[in-house]
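The data layer described in this paper is built around a simple, fixed record for each protein. Because each token names a local backbone shape, the row as a whole describes the fold. We quote a single record here, exactly as it is kept in our systems:

***
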Amino acid sequence: MALDQQTQLSREETDALLGAHETGVLSLAHENEPYAIPISYGYDSEKRRFYLRLVSTPQSDKQQFLASSP
């Protein structure tokens, strides 16, 4: 199986997937170093809005990766 294979979800599939869960992983990278952050989130399928809150201290790894990722 090719590693660059992509799958596109329909609007209904996206709403169902995001609406069925409350946790996920936000993955970032800085200078080719990966960093994954577990997150809690909410999803409003009627408004199609995704809500999350990231909390960190100024000197944390999370903050450094967030600041360096576009």
